[in-house]
Structures are given as structure tokens and as C-alpha cells.
């Protein structure tokens, strides 16, 4: 897969040269004819990218392996070379990011400067956040337009210089082997759905593989509450049963049943809320269970369970759907079982949020934990159920 050399050169700046960044977003921008300028704070990755003119994207699955070569990129350290990056953004066609939802506020200032410097003779910059979070691009746009980052008068007519489109991005990219260098191993499946509505009066950027839709909400909720709910359920149960990978976890009959029950809980919500056909959702679930069971990915439960405070928050894969189901008096018990396992994901090596979670659990009353971590309020039907879970986990920790 290489870009057609006759394609006029277009430029994309991509924040986050990590797994999904190199393996999916940059790969598809590359085959769509963009020069990709990576921006990252990891000096080692930046140096490697600048020293190597190509890297491989390796798709692995039951029907074999296939490789693509990615070229035509540069890399800039956003911590040390901000001015250079501002110039690149001011003249780019697209800015994408896959840095993690909690990092958006840190990349916003430099994007704001680049947008502000942009000539209005150019098409507006297309900004698309590729994170596992509902409306991540809106969150990024809010940070960009905040008065500390942009003069309010410029924020008001920012639409002349930039358009912000939410997206749902789906492809499993595990942590890479330490000796993999820049190469990225990932699954064959991919889905990248982007909101078309911000480009109504302009042409949306041309990116191969993107599905443009007028209503993104069903796509992002279905993705987060199926792929990520199922994945995290397997990972947290797996972690607590000492499994190494999601594949190993799913070999355990009990965990497999818990995943299926959690995905039945979310299917009950999604099919009704978004008018999705039940058979279609069943097929989607089956496919996801097959995808996360891919033995070639060797996806560690610690990666999939990473950042438990984010994953236990209000709009995320467990509490988001469970709160809505509880309000309707529907079953959300498997989601709560998985949330309990997430509360037990404490002090995991290399995971700051799991250390923070342990401190919060040790020093706060159960009701306060539920308010702080899950963003639930006392008047919500789910609140007492999660309080009971927290009490149980706290009691078990005291016994240990
Ligand atoms: N890996 C997947 O399977 C997958 C799939 C879909 C979506 N996502 C989402 O993509 C995002 C990234 O996930 P990942 O697995 O690629 O993680 P990753 O850790 O491999 O990559 C994140 C990259 O962001 C960089 N970064 C951190 N702070 C930065 C900053 N201030 N400025 C610039 N770069 C910064 C890191 O150095 C790292 O290279 C997350 O939101 C994740 O949920 C991941
Ligand atoms: O990236 P997170 O931490 O939100 O979730 C971990 C995994 O579930 C996730 O990265 C999946 O691999 C991905 O969302 C598949 O599309």
C-alpha cells in the first residue's frame, strides 16, 4: 500500500505517534496521499521516525499475515519544537490525534496557535480526534477555543479557519514487542466513522477508508459500549483471574460468559435507543467476540484495562450504559460485575490511574468514591448499586 505518486501533496499533522497513530491513522492518511507530520512528546519515537524513512504495518489474523510499508512522513517533538509545529499546522489540510482523552488539553494550545496563524485563503483545517471517547473532537475544540489558548474574538469566527469533526475509530492495536522498532502489528479489521456535518458547506477531506455519516452518535455509542465494554470486561475479569492476555481470558468459560452477559446488557440499551436491529447487533457482538479472541494479537490485559479511573467514569463503557439501563429498570448486572473488577485493578505497574484509584479507595467513604470516580449522583438509580460494589472491594482490601 503506497500513495499514488501523481496525487498532489497534501499534509496531515498527527498528534500521538503511538500504536493507533502509526498503525491506523497515519497509515490511512498515507495511502490517501498525505504527507504525515507526526507530533509527539516521546523523543525516542521522534528520533526513530526521523532516522527511518519507512516502517511496516503488519496485519495478523487467522487467515495469515500481510504487510504495508508507510513512507512520506516527518516527526516533530511538540515539547521542544513548538514554533515549528505551529507553522506545520498553519499550512496543513488535516490535524488528527490519538493521544488519549486526558491529553487533549495539552495539545490544544499549539493547535490553537496554528489555527490562528492560518491564512483564510486556505480551506479550513479539518480537525478529527481519534480517541476512545464520546465527542472527543468537541472536547478538543473547547480546549482550543478557551480564552487562555485563543483570543475570544478569534474563537468566535474560528469556523473560517478550522472545522471540528467527531469520530469513532475501531481497530485493535496491542502494545508492541520491545524490539519492534516503529513497526506495528495489528488486526485486519478497521472502522473509522466521521461526522460529515461540519463540512456541509465545504468538501470533507478525502481519506480512504473513512465512512462519513450525518449522525455519529449511534456509531460511537455502539462502538464504545460493545467493542470497548466487551474488551474491558474480558481484561478486568482476566486481570483478577491472573490471565496474561485477552485471548487467555476468553479461554476461561466463566469470563467468556461474563463478556457475553455484559454485551447483552449493552445490546438491550443500544438496540432500543438507536433503533438498531437486534439480529444486526447480535452479529456485531459475535464479530467483536471473535476479534478480541484473536490469539495473534497477544493483547495484554494490563493494556486493555489501562486507566481505570477513565474507564469507570460517567460517560464510559460500564457506568455510561449501566446508568441508562438502571434508570429504565433494566438488567445491568454484568456491567456492574465488570465494574467491580475494574475497581480491583489497583497498583498495576506502569499505570498511574490504578495507583490513584487505590489511594482514593483507601481514603474515601464509598459514597464519595462513587461521586468522584463514576460521576454518579445520589438521586440516580445506579448510585446505591455501585456504592455496594465499592464497599465490598474496600472490605476485601482491608482483609488482605
Ligand atoms: N490501541 C488501540 O487499539 C486503539 C484503538 C482505537 C482507539 N484508540 C485510542 O487512541 C488513543 C491512543 O491509544 P494508543 O493505543 O495508540 O496509545 P499509545 O500510548 O500507543 O500512543 C499514545 C501516544 O501519544 C503520545 N503523547 C502523549 N502525550 C502527548 C502530548 N502531550 N503530545 C503529543 N503526543 C503525546 C505518547 O507519547 C504516545 O506515543 C487512545 O485514546 C485510545 O483509546 C486506541
Ligand atoms: O484505548 P482504551 O484504553 O480506551 O481501551 C483499550 C482497548 O479496549 C482499545 O484500545 C481497543 O483496542 C480499541 O478501542 C479497538 O478499537
TrEMBL record:
Self-association and partners: Monomer.
Its EC number(s): 1.1.1.17
Stated family: Belongs to the mannitol dehydrogenase family.
Function: Catalyzes the NAD(H)-dependent interconversion of D-fructose 6-phosphate and D-mannitol 1-phosphate in the mannitol metabolic pathway.
Keyword Lipoprotein tagged: no
GO CC annotation, single: cytosol
Protein keywords: NAD, Oxidoreductase
SUPFAM superfamilies in alphabetical order: 6-phosphogluconate dehydrogenase C-terminal domain-like, NAD(P)-binding Rossmann-fold domains
Catalytic activity, reaction form: D-mannitol 1-phosphate + NAD(+) = beta-D-fructose 6-phosphate + NADH + H(+)
Molecular function in Gene Ontology: mannitol-1-phosphate 5-dehydrogenase activity
Top-level division of the source organism's lineage: Eukaryota
Top EC group: oxidoreductase
Record's protein name: Mannitol-1-phosphate 5-dehydrogenase
Segments forming domain Mannitol dehydrogenase N-terminal: 11-204
NCBIfam families on file: PRK02318.2-5 (NF002652)
One Gene Ontology term from the biological process aspect of the record: mannitol catabolic process
Amino acid at each position: 500500500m503506497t500513495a499514488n505518486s501523481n496525487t498532489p501533496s497534501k499534509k496531515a499533522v498527527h498528534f500521538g505517534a503511538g500504536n493507533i497513530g502509526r498503525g491506523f491513522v497515519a497509515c490511512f492518511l498515507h495511502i490517501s496521499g498525505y504527507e504525515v507530520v507526526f507530533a509527539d512528546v516521546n523523543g525516542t519515537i521522534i528520533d526513530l521516525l526521523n532516522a527511518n524513512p519507512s516502517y511496516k504495518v503488519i496485519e495478523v489474523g487467522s487467515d495469515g499475515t500481510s504487510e504495508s510499508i508507510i513512507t512520506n512522513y516527518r516527526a516533530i517533538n511538540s515539547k521542544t519544537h513548538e514554533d515549528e509545529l505551529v507553522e506545520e499546522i498553519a499550512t496543513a489540510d488535516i490535524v488528527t490525534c490519538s493521544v488519549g482523552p486526558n491529553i487533549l488539553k495539552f495539545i490544544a494550545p499549539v493547535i490553537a496557535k496554528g489555527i490562528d496563524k492560518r491564512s483564510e485563503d486556505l480551506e479550513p483545517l479539518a480537525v478529527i480526534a481519534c480517541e476512545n471517547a464520546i465527542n472527543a473532537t468537541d472536547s478538543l475544540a473547547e480546549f482550543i477555543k478557551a480564552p487562555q489558548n485563543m483570543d475570544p474574538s478569534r474563537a468566535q469566527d474560528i469556523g473560517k479557519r478550522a472545522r471540528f469533526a467527531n469520530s469513532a475509530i475501531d481497530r485493535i492495536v496491542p502494545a508492541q514487542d520491545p524490539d519492534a522498532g516503529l513497526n506495528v502489528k495489528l488486526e485486519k479489521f478497521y472502522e473509522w466513522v466521521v461526522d460529515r456535518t461540519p463540512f456541509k458547506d465545504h468538501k470533507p477531506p478525502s481519506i480512504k477508508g473513512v465512512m462519513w455519516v450525518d449522525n455519529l452518535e449511534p456509531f460511537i455509542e455502539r462502538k464504545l459500549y460493545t467493542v470497548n465494554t466487551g474488551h474491558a470486561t474480558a481484561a478486568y475479569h482476566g486481570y483478577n483471574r491472573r490471565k496474561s492476555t485477552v485471548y487467555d481470558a476468553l479461554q476461561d468459560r466463566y469470563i467468556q460468559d461474563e463478556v457475553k452477559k455484559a454485551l447483552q446488557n449493552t445490546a438491550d440499551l443500544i438496540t432500543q435507543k438507536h433503533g438498531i436491529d437486534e439480529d444486526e447487533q447480535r452479529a456485531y457482538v459475535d464479530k467483536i467476540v471473535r476479534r478480541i479472541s484473536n490469539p495473534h494479537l497477544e493483547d495484554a490485559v494490563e493494556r486493555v484495562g489501562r486507566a481505570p479511573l477513565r474507564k469507570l467514569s460517567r460517560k464510559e463503557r460500564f457506568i455510561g450504559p449501566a446508568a441508562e439501563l438502571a434508570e429504565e429498570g433494566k438488567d445491568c448486572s454484568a456491567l456492574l460485575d465488570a465494574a467491580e473488577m475494574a475497581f480491583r485493578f489497583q497498583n498495576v505497574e506502569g499505570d498511574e490511574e490504578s495507583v490513584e484509584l487505590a489511594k482514593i479507595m483507601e481514603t474515601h467513604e464509598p459514597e464519595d468514591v462513587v461521586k468522584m470516580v463514576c460521576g454518579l449522583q445520589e438521586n440516580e438509580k445506579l448510585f446505591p448499586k455501585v456504592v455496594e460494589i465499592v464497599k465490598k472491594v474496600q472490605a476485601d482490601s482491608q482483609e488482605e
